[in-house]
Write a structure and sequence with these properties.
The complex is a heterodimer of chains A (about 290) and B (about 290). Chain A has about 290 residues and is mainly alpha-helical. Chain A folds into two domains: about 60 residues; about 180 residues, MetI-like (MetI-like fold, Orthogonal Bundle). In chain A, α4 packs antiparallel against α11. The longest helix of chain A is centred in the first third of the chain and has 36 residues. Chain A starts with a helix and ends with a helix. With about 290 residues, chain B is an all-alpha fold. Chain B has a single domain, classed as MetI-like fold. Chain B has a two-stranded antiparallel sheet with strand order 1-2. In chain B, α3 runs parallel beside α7 and α3 packs across α8. The chains are: A mainly alpha (about 290), B mainly alpha (about 290). At the A-B interface, α1, α4, α5, α6 and α11 of A face α1, α3, α4, α5 and α8 of B.
C-alpha cells in the first residue's frame, strides 16, 4: 500500500509540473503583448531582442485610445469602443428578449408541430454561415441597411438556435406544478412567463446574455461585410484596419490597442466564471 | 396526457413567433435563395441571370478553388486531431484533483475567450521573422525556429499551433464530461489492477465518448470554416497561397470580385461537404460511442 501511495504522490507532482509548464506556454504570448505595449517604439524592434522595456510607457495606452489620424484614415479606438458597446447592447437585449420568449414556447407550451420545429431549429446550428452570407447580404442591401448597424443587431431580435436550446433546457427543469397552479388560478401564459419562469431563470438568462455579448464583442466577419465607414467600425474591425494600415510599424501602439480590446472580456470572465463554465458544459453534455 | 387546448396552441405560436419569423427570413430564405443564386450570374448590383450549372462547372476548372479546398482539408486534418488531443489532455490534467485547478482552468481558457482579431495580430507579432519572440525563446533551448510566416511549409503549422492554443471551449466540455464519470467505475478498474493508461483507454475515454463525438463534429464544422485568423495573419493567403482557405476565397469572390453566384455555389459545396462528413462521423461512431443509461 505504501508504494501505491508514493506512486500517487509522484503522479500528483508530475501533473502539477505539467500544469505549470503549460500555463506558462498559454500565458506567454499575453505577457509579450503587454510587455510590447509598454515599450518605446525603438525597443520593440531592437536586435537582439529586448525582454523588458527600459521604462514603462503607460502613455502608450492613452495614445492608442485617443490617437486619431484622419489623413491615414483611422479613428481613435475610443470611437470604435463606443460603437462596439452600442452594437453589443442592442444584440444582448435582443438575444435575451427574443430567445426567452421562444424558449418558453418550446419548453412549456404544447402546440402542433412543436417537436418537429425544435428538431429543425437544432439542425440549423449545422448550417455554415458562408452559405447564408450572399443572400443575407442581398436582403440587407435591398433594405438599404448596408453601412448601418442594423444587419448586425436586428437578426438578434428574432432568436437563434443555440440560445433557444440553452434556455429551453433550463426552463424544462422548473417544476410544472408551479405553473399549473397559476394556470388554474386563471393566470395568462404571459403572466406565468413573466412572474414565475423568468425570475427562476436568472442564471440561464445571464449565461445567454454573456455568450451573446462575447459573440458580439468578438465578431469580425459581420462588421467586415456590413460596415463601410471607418467612423462606424467596431473594435475588432478597427483593430484589423489599424493593423493593415499601420502594421509592421508601431507595434507598441497596436499591442496597446489590442490589450484594451482583450482586457474587458477577460475581466468579465473573471467575474462570471462559474456561470460561463456551467453554460459551456450544458451545451456539450446535454447536446 | 391532456389534449392540447386551442388557447395553449395559440399561445405557443405567439411565443414562438419571433423565431418562426426569424427562421423564415434569416434561415430558410437565404438557404433557398443561395441555391437559386448559385445557378445564376449575380453581382448584387444587377438582377441575377440564370446560367444553370455553369458556376459549378467553372468551379471544377478553377485552380484556386482546388487549392483553397485542399488547403482547408489539410488544415482541418491536422488541426482537428491536434486540437482534440490538446483539449482532452488539458481536461484530464485539470481533472487530476490538484491544487489551483480553477486558476489553471482560467489560464487555459483565456485564449478562446478573446477576440480572434487581436489573437491573430498578437501571433503575427510573436512569430514575426525579424522581431518575433518565439524563435529567440526556442533558440535558448537549442531549437532553430523556422521562418513561420514566410515559409509556405510552416505557415499552416503556425495556424495549427494557434488552434491548439485556443481549444478552451472544447476543454471545458471535456472537463464537464470527465467530472460526470462515476468514481465507482474508476475505483472498480483500480481494484482489478488497471494502470493509468488502461484506465484512460478502457474506462475514461469510452465514458466520455459522446462528448468526444460532439466536440469532433463541432471541430469539423469550425475548422472547415476557418476565416478570421488566416485572413488577418496571412493577407492574401501568403506565402504562395499556402494559407488561402475556402471561406476566404468564397468571401473574396462575393465581396471583392462581386461574383455572388459563384460564391453561393461555393457555399453550397461547403454545406454538402459538412453534411457528408457529419453523417460519416455519426455513422462511424455508432460502434464506438457509449451512451450512459439512455
Amino acid at each position: 500500500m505504501k508504494s501505491q501511495q508514493q506512486a500517487v504522490t509522484v503522479q500528483k507532482v508530475l501533473v502539477q509540473v505539467a500544469l505549470v509548464v503549460l500555463s506558462i506556454a498559454f500565458l506567454f504570448p499575453f505577457a509579450w503583448l503587454v510587455l510590447t505595449a509598454l515599450k518605446p517604439l525603438n525597443e520593440t524592434m531592437s536586435m537582439p531582442i529586448r525582454w523588458l522595456p527600459s521604462k514603462f510607457m503607460w502613455g502608450n495606452f492613452k495614445d492608442a485610445a485617443i490617437y486619431g489620424h484622419e489623413s491615414l484614415g483611422y479613428y481613435p479606438f475610443l470611437v470604435y469602443a463606443v460603437n462596439t458597446v452600442i452594437v453589443c447592447i442592442l444584440i444582448v437585449a435582443g438575444t435575451v428578449a427574443s430567445n426567452s420568449v421562444v424558449a418558453y414556447a418550446f419548453a412549456r407550451l404544447r402546440w402542433p408541430g412543436r417537436d418537429l420545429a425544435f428538431g429543425i431549429t437544432l439542425a440549423t446550428m449545422m448550417v455554415p454561415f458562408p452559405v447564408l452570407m450572399v443572400p443575407t447580404f442581398a436582403l440587407f442591401r435591398h433594405l438599404d441597411w448596408i453601412g448601418t448597424y442594423r444587419p448586425l443587431w436586428v437578426p438578434a431580435w428574432f432568436g437563434s438556435a443555440f440560445s433557444i436550446f440553452l434556455l429551453r433546457q433550463f426552463f424544462r427543469t422548473i417544476p410544472f406544478e408551479l405553473t399549473e397552479a397559476a394556470k388554474i388560478d386563471g393566470a395568462s401564459e404571459w403572466r406565468i412567463f413573466r412572474t414565475i419562469v423568468l425570475p427562476l431563470s436568472k442564471a440561464a438568462l445571464a449565461v445567454v446574455a454573456l455568450f451573446s455579448f462575447m459573440g458580439a464583442w468578438n465578431d469580425f466577419l459581420g462588421p467586415l461585410i456590413y460596415l463601410l465607414d471607418q467612423k462606424t467600425f467596431t473594435l475588432s474591425l478597427g483593430l484589423q484596419f489599424y493593423q493593415s494600415q499601420n502594421g509592421g510599424t508601431s507595434w507598441n501602439l497596436l499591442m496597446a490597442a489590442s490589450s484594451m480590446v482583450i482586457a474587458p472580456v477577460i475581466i468579465l470572465f473573471f467575474f462570471t466564471q462559474r456561470l460561463f463554465i456551467q453554460g459551456i458544459a450544458i451545451t456539450g453534455l446535454k447536446g | 396526457m391532456k389534449s392540447i387546448t386551442k388557447r395553449e396552441a395559440w399561445a405557443g405560436y405567439l411565443f414562438a413567433s419571433p423565431w418562426l419569423l426569424g427562421f423564415l427570413v434569416f434561415m430558410s430564405y437565404p438557404l433557398i435563395a443561395s441555391i437559386y443564386f448559385s445557378l445564376c450570374d449575380y453581382s448584387v448590383l444587377k438582377s441575377p441571370v440564370w446560367v444553370g450549372i455553369d458556376n459549378y462547372k467553372m468551379l471544377m476548372h478553377d485552380e484556386l478553388f482546388r487549392t483553397t479546398l485542399a488547403n482547408t482539408f489539410l488544415y482541418a486534418a491536422i488541426a482537428l486531431p491536434a486540437g482534440m488531443a490538446t483539449a482532452i489532455i488539458l481536461a484530464m490534467l485539470l481533472n487530476a484533483k490538484v491544487k489551483g485547478m480553477a486558476l489553471y482552468r482560467t489560464f487555459f481558457f483565456i485564449p478562446s475567450l478573446v477576440p480572434q482579431v487581436s489573437l491573430a495580430i498578437l501571433w503575427r507579432w510573436v512569430l514575426d521573422g525579424e522581431h518575433g519572440v518565439l524563435n529567440p525563446v526556442l533558440a535558448k533551448i537549442g531549437i532553430h525556429g523556422p521562418n513561420w510566416l514566410n515559409d509556405p511549409l510552416w505557415a499552416k503549422p503556425s495556424l495549427v499551433l494557434m488552434a491548439m492554443w485556443g481549444v478552451g471551449n472544447a476543454m471545458l466540455i471535456y472537463l464537464a464530461g470527465l467530472q460526470d464519470v462515476p468514481t465507482q467505475l474508476i475505483e472498480a478498474s483500480e481494484l482489478d489492477g488497471a494502470n493509468g493508461w488502461q484506465k484512460t483507454k478502457h474506462v475514461t475515454l469510452p465514458m466520455i465518448s459522446p462528448v468526444i463525438l460532439f466536440n469532433g463534429i463541432m471541430g469539423i464544422i469550425g475548422s472547415l470554416q476557418v476565416f478570421t485568423v488566416p485572413y488577418i495573419m496571412f493577407p492574401g493567403g501568403a506565402p504562395v497561397h499556402s494559407t488561402y482557405f475556402y471561406t476566404e476565397y468564397l468571401y473574396d469572390n462575393a465581396f471583392r470580385y462581386h461574383k455572388m453566384g459563384y460564391a453561393s455555389a461555393m457555399g453550397w459545396i461547403m454545406f454538402i461537404v459538412i453534411l457528408v462528413l457529419t453523417m460519416l462521423s455519426l455513422r462511424m461512431s455508432e460502434k464506438h460511442v457509449h451512451y450512459q443509461g439512455s
